[in-house]
Design goal:
The complex is a heterotrimer of chains A (363), B (476) and C (407). Chain A has 363 residues and is an all-alpha fold. Chain A has 15 helices and no strands. In chain A, helix 1 packs across helix 6. Chain B is an alpha+beta fold. Chain B has 15 helices and twelve strands. Chain B is elongated and about 100 Å long. Chain C has 407 residues and is an alpha/beta fold. In chain C, 32% of the residues lie in helices and 27% in strands. In chain C, the strands form four sheets. An eight-stranded mixed β-sheet of chain C has the order 6-3-2-8-9-10-11-12. In chain C, strands 13, 14, 15, 16 and 17 form a five-stranded mixed β-sheet that branches. The longest helix of chain C is centred in the last third of the chain and has 29 residues. Chain C starts with a helix and ends with a helix. Classes of the chains: A mainly alpha (363), B alpha+beta (476), C alpha/beta (407). The interface between A and B is large, with 52 and 51 residues.
Chain lengths: 363, 476, 407
């Protein structure tokens, strides 16, 4: 029996994308929200979610007109074959860099907080092997996997929030405007870098069979991710008040350490370690596969698998660039703005050009 | 079907053609038609239709064929039943009802020139003696006879759309039948299974290896889910699965293998939605526990001691003061022992109940704990795991889960929950990627994901008839 | 297929390494409490309380039960971790702080400031931030050595038991390390911690105190039993200990914060001068706090509402006038305690009630708030308290039995 290429729906894609965005609540990347928004960080998380949603919506709208196409097809239509190759290279570089940093910081935090005697390489390699395996499969499986994990992930996050809520003092959320409205808005691009993963559903849009409603569901991704971010940030702010809270490497992990449900349910961060590692592997796997499929499309390769291992190696290399834990987080923050601009507004512009080119042709 | 076609006409040829169409004769195994001539004056052509296995023509009444051969009376409808010793008969005009009556186990007699068909019904409608075997009583079981097995399925499932077609095999004597529900089963799946049977089923397969044991589609999952119960087969057929019955095998092979096929039972249909749903989640949790419990014990006690409540930890530490072995060895030893005991119990004569094995496990665990050979927590985890693994009714499914728990145990000893989570991610990815006959293993999961598009990532086996639409053709 | 086989093999060989952090529980010692004092030679003098695992019995298993279930090791070191290592030199197992349930800090160290200690503890991945936190009047090391809790079988329950007593009686606030870490900073609230003391009357070093006023740990009128006692509150200004509150003042502080559960209060009997009467009371609702600014500085109006029940007393409570008088007396006593807390803390420049948090919301941005310099505003703080006490229940009898007979 011929292996059918499996399709999935826009809603599955949105659930998968939401997970990809929301996974970062476990990562030090969250600090960029807290740093930019101070006591109003929850507000900046929501505002940047809206900003990102507005930027990805037109991309989805144009993608609705291209059955079986993803954002790379848009690039080809707009900028031609060379543009597509260049886009694949840039995308690969950014994904490998960010993936590397996520990889490093996850194993770095695991080493710091849980396994002080274990070598750094063990953590990184374990996660990367898992991610490479995930990327070895096909897009439909990955989207389905993400959709299944989303439920457990949300439960895990909600449990942390519910468990740490008692430590909080709501008045730590004041002053309401944090650094002031001007600075809050100026910090939005920095915060929006957390929504870079909203590009992943655009890359995986080729498997969506029924295209109507695609744009709507794609713009749901940053919005739902933003709601999760805002909820987490709200609880983090009341539990680890500003400004001291800014100095905690992985705030949600520290929050998990505080969960206190009577004398028999405390220090349960091991459970969340489980969710943390599982979802990180999925995120890195999705990033690898996204970049690999982009390569496969640009270079007309039959299988994306060819590109998975080289990209994974590149990721591992990037993971070991930063000198220390602080530099790892710094690397993420310093590249945040560039990554955001390339991953979200640029595709929007490309989608605009593609739309103009497509307008002449029959759909 | 037009209204005229649906009634018995005086032309026997017309009736015959209609029945051939309705009952998919002659491809449909088990459906029998015999032309004969009633020895009246002049002889009249007639047609007998019955289902082989449901009806033994020679044992029918005082031997139906012989009685018909002796029938000389006037060739008018009322005379015929009187000449037969069959207790019950009825006259039918509707051909569809007639087909149903045949599938019910009746013998239809159509005679040239008669505008009604005689249905003879001999079997006594007494149910099988109910065996109370827990919640899920299987009342009958497959035998070594393909013909009888087919009849057993037909007894359970009396749909004219149930097709049993002969599947050619590589071996000339190896008869096999493919069963599927026309209009429900995914046609490429049926074609693929038939092709595979032709290519792979040979004499050694029949004699030595079970079919399910042949190389799996992808890694660990078997190609077929074996079953020995006709009621399960009926359930699978009604859900669009394809069933392979082979001669000289008391096992039916169901394709494709899906989690729904492993974890649900025919008796689930009797439950209301919330009960069925909670039962499904209960099974899911039980499976997770079986998978993760031994590993979690090792991870907790060797890596994440902070997770245990302090008084409990101190009490536990005091029980381990004189422990001769490391915890990992204890858990591994107990789990392996449990496996051996379980296998032994499977090989015991049927008269020894399964409970004996569990009791042995509990007693042995208690003895080991009391003698200080192992700690109480690993023993508890092992016995719990052994009990919980029984929620998967099918052996091969349960065995896979039990095997994977050793992998999780090994991963737990490496870096606690960190490596366990990594392995879990890989397992999830594997399970999401796994396909049997192109159908995802996690596929038509009515009981796990109930959103309207839950079937959209896969060609549907279960829902909406020939749901080819969602699957794009072509090789990836 | 071959590629996959190679990958799997590679992965498996990789996994053959590992097990770096694996350690059996019987190979570890889990200190359950530490006491930290100012050191003589080194920075800290520390006492570590170690449970004696072998003496804890579980069901039919475990060791022989003995009288002592834990031991103390006292060391001096430059940091807590070094102190633990030093203590580890006396053992054949690895010490780990994963089950550290209680941290007691000596008065001298607390008055100097706990910033360094906090930093070290919050960096440490093993220490639980949920550990109970205490201040000890005098030496924490001496306290840990002397403290002997009656009925203690499993020392793992010690800290939880202390927190339970704190929550039940409200003689001292239930505080954990995380509270101290969070409230040390320019946030608009200052930390406070329960106080341990060594009762010199019990140890025989001095006579019991001769006052009937509400006391702090160490001053309770006791003749024997456990030398250690837990009562009162230590008030911090940022990371420094600045003073103590008595048991009654502790209740007033908790009431001002809206955290007082059921508490017990003994106050002068309005009907029999010289006698005292006891009630059990709680807050009927959260305190209503109105912050405002006037010319000189911040101003706060608080309204407190209590509900109580009589536990002792000899009056006939069928009489409405008697009930009103009792309510008035109880209210008066409570208000006195509240005023005393406010006077003390404002004098010390500390804000354990968290008035600053009430003022924070009056500022739009963080910069505005930090320019206000709350720390300098605390001494200018004017607080007006009004309160009401409603006695609802009077025990199982509403009047003394002999009064009924007289009628």
């Amino acid at each position: 029996m011929a292996k059918p290429k499996l399709a999935y729906g826009s809603r599955s894609l949105a659930a998968f994308g939401t997970l990809m965005v929301a996974v970062q609540v476990f990562h030090p990347a969250m600090l960029s929200i807290l740093q930019a928004g101070e006591t109003a960080a929850w507000l900046s998380a929501l505002l940047s979610a809206v900003l990102t949603a507005l930027l990805v919506w037109p991309v989805g709208k144009v993608l609705e007109r291209i059955p079986g196409g993803n954002v790379m097809d848009l690039v080809r239509i707009a900028l031609g074959d060379f543009g597509e190759i260049a886009a694949a290279l840039v995308l690969g570089a950014i994904i490998a860099h960010r993936g590397g940093i996520y990889l490093r910081e996850t194993s770095e935090m695991a080493t710091t907080a849980v396994f002080p005697h274990t070598p750094q390489t063990f953590g990184t390699t374990t996660i990367l092997l898992g991610a490479a395996y995930v990327a070895w499969g096909d897009g439909a499986s990955l989207v389905h996997h993400g959709r299944m994990v989303l439920f457990g992930f949300l439960c895990a996050v909600l449990l942390i929030l519910a468990g740490t809520f008692g430590w909080g003092e709501f008045r730590y959320l004041t002053p309401v405007l944090g650094p002031g409205l001007g600075k809050l808005l100026a910090g939005l691009p920095q915060v929006s870098s957390l929504y870079v993963a909203a590009l992943l559903p655009l890359l995986f849009a080729d498997g969506v069979e029924r295209r109507e409603g695609l744009a709507r569901w794609i713009s749901v991704v940053p919005l739902s991710g933003g709601i999760i971010f805002a909820a987490v940030v709200l609880v983090l702010l009341i539990v680890f008040p500003f400004p001291g809270g800014l100095n905690i490497g992985a705030p949600l992990h520290s929050a998990a350490r505080l969960v206190l449900g009577g004398r028999f349910f405390e220090r349960l961060e091991g459970f969340w370690l489980f969710a943390w590692v599982e979802t990180t592997i999925l995120l890195l796997g999705a990033m690898l596969m996204g970049a690999a499929t982009a390569f496969a499309k640009a270079f007309r390769m039959d299988r994306h698998r060819t590109a998975v291992l080289p990209l994974a190696a590149l990721m591992l290399t990037f993971a070991f660039f930063p000198h220390d834990q602080a530099e790892t987080i710094e690397a993420l923050h310093s590249s945040a703005f560039i990554a955001f601009v390339i991953m979200i507004p640029v595709p929007a512009v490309v989608a605009g050009i593609a739309y103009l080119r497509l307008r002449g042709r029959p759909s | 079907m037009k209204a005229t076609e649906a009634t018995v006409a005086e032309s026997l040829a017309h009736n015959r053609a209609c029945l051939v169409r309705t009952l998919y004769f002659p491809e449909n195994l088990g459906i029998e038609m015999r032309d004969l001539r009633l020895p009246t004056e002049p002889p009249v052509p007639a047609l007998l239709v019955w289902v082989d296995g449901l009806v033994e023509l020679d044992a029918f009444g005082a031997g139906l064929a012989a009685e018909l051969d002796r029938f000389t009376g006037p060739a008018v409808p009322p005379a015929l039943p009187r000449a037969l010793t069959v207790q019950r008969h009825r006259w039918l005009r509707d051909l569809n009802v007639l087909a149903d009556a045949v599938l019910e186990g009746g013998v239809a007699l159509l005679v040239e020139g008669w505008s009604a068909a005689l249905v003879l019904d001999d079997h006594e409608r007494i149910g099988y003696p109910a065996q109370k075997l827990g919640v899920n009583p299987h009342t009958d079981i497959f035998t070594w006879d393909l013909r009888l097995n087919l009849a057993l399925v037909r007894k359970r499932m009396r749909s004219p759309r149930l097709l049993a077609v002969a599947a050619p095999t590589r071996h000339q004597h190896g008869a096999a039948a493919l069963l599927y529900l026309e209009g429900k089963a995914y046609p490429p799946l049926v074609r693929a299974v038939r092709r595979w049977v032709r290519a792979h089923l040979s004499e050694p397969t029949f004699n030595r290896r079970g079919i399910a044991g042949l190389p799996a589609v992808f890694g660990l999952l078997p190609r077929f889910r074996p079953t020995r119960w006709p009621d399960e087969v009926a359930k699978f057929l009604s859900e669009g699965y394809v069933v392979l019955l082979t001669d000289r095998s008391e096992v039916a092979y169901v394709a494709p293998v899906t989690q729904a096929g492993w974890f649900s039972l025919p008796s689930d249909y009797n439950l209301s939605y919330p009960l069925r749903r909670s039962l499904a989640y209960g099974r899911l949790i039980a499976i997770q526990l079986v998978l993760l419990l031994p590993g979690a014990v090792v991870a907790l006690l060797n890596y994440h001691q902070e997770m245990l409540p302090t008084p409990f930890l101190l009490a536990l530490a005091s029980t381990r003061e004189n422990a001769p072995f490391g915890l990992f060895f204890e858990v591994l030893f107990l789990e392996l022992t449990a496996e051996v005991i379980r296998e032994t119990v499977f090989r015991l004569p049927v008269s020894v109940p399964m409970g004996a094995g569990l009791l042995t496990m509990v007693l042995l665990g208690l003895l080991l704990v009391v003698t200080g050979f192992v700690g109480p927590l690993p023993a508890l985890a092992t016995v719990m795991g052994a009990l919980l693994s029984l929620v998967i009714p099918e052996y091969s499914g349960a065995y896979l889960v039990r095997l994977w728990r050793f992998y999780f145990l090994l991963s737990a000893v490496l870096l606690g929950f960190f490596t366990m989570a990594a392995l879990f991610a890989v397992l999830m990815a594997y399970v999401c990627q796994a396909r049997g006959w192109g159908v995802p293993f996690l596929g038509p999961s009515g009981w796990m994901f109930s959103s309207p598009e839950s079937g959209s990532a896969r060609p549907q086996v279960r829902k909406g008839g020939q749901a080819v639409g969602k699957a794009k053709a072509g090789v990836r | 297929m071959k590629v996959r086989a190679v990958l799997v093999t590679l992965a498996l060989t990789f996994l053959l390494t590992g097990c770096w952090d694996r350690v059996e529980i019987e190979d570890q010692i889990f200190p359950i409490a530490i006491a930290v004092d100012k050191g003589v030679v080194h920075k800290y003098r520390m006492a570590v309380r170690i449970p004696m695992v072998g003496t804890i019995r579980t069901g039919m298993l475990g060791g022989e039960r003995s009288k002592t279930t834990s031991e103390i090791v006292t060391v001096e070191a430059e940091s807590v971790v070094q102190g633990i290592f030093t203590a580890n030199a006396t053992a054949t197992r690895r010490f780990t702080l994963r089950h550290l349930r209680g941290i007691a800090v000596g008065e001298d160290l607390a008055r100097e400031g706990l910033g360094d200690l906090y930093m070290e503890l919050s960096r440490n991945g093993e220490v639980r931030d949920t550990a109970a936190f205490f201040v000890v009047r005098g030496s924490a090391v001496e306290f840990l050595k002397l403290a002997r809790y009656p009925g203690e079988i499993n020392p793992g329950k010690l800290a939880e038991g202390l927190l339970l007593v704190e929550k039940h009686l409200h003689m001292s606030p239930p505080i954990r390390l995380q509270h101290m870490l969070n409230r040390s900073g320019l946030l608009g609230v200052d930390p406070f911690a329960p106080v341990f003391g060594i009762n010199r009357g019990v140890t025989g070093e001095s006579q019991p105190p001769g006052t009937t006023a509400s006391a702090i740990a160490g001053d309770l009128y006791r003749l024997d039993g456990n030398p250690a006692e837990l009562a009162g509150t230590g008030i911090f200004r940022d990371t420094r200990l600045v003073g103590y509150l008595t048991v009654d003042e502790t209740q007033a502080l908790l009431a001002l914060r809206g955290e007082m559960g059921k508490a017990y209060m003994t106050f002068p009997d309005p009907f029999r001068p010289g006698d005292k009467i006891q009630i059990r009371f709680h807050q009927e609702n959260k305190p209503k706090v109105r912050p405002s600014f006037n010319g000189q500085g911040p101003q706060v109006t608080i309204r407190l509402l209590f509900e109580g029940e009589v536990l002792s007393g000899t009056e006939n409570f069928w009489d409405p006038a008697v009930r009103r008088r009792l309510e008035e007396a109880a209210r008066h006593h409570m208000e006195q305690q509240v005023q005393s807390v406010l006077a003390k803390t404002i004098k010390w420049g500390a804000d354990p009630v968290g008035f600053g948090l009430r003022f924070r919301s009056r500022f739009a941005t963080w910069d505005d708030w930090s320019r206000y310099h709350w720390r300098t505003q605390v001494p200018k703080l004017k607080v007006t308290v009004t309160s009401e006490m409603r006695i609802r229940r009077f025990g199982l009898t509403l009047a003394p039995l002999q009064q009924k007979q007289e009628k």
